[in-house]
Amino acid sequence: xxxxxxRIFVIVIAIVVANLAYGLLSTLLGIVLSGVWVNLTKWxxxxxxxxxxxxxxxxxxxxxxxxxxxx
Length: 71
Description:
By secondary structure, the protein is mainly alpha-helical. The protein has helices at about 1-35, 40-70. Helix 1 runs antiparallel to helix 2.
């Protein structure tokens, strides 16, 4: 049961990271293609996406490190 829960956690984190990466790329493409370089809201969204991706990857790494140490 523990292995199944671990796999589900990793899959959910992968989906979250993929969604954040898609949002980041679409926002950056929107900035570049529309030419709104000075729109602060878009840049804050880019920063939030990068922080979210880094946080999700850090959470995954710390979870896997904790599981490795528990074994």
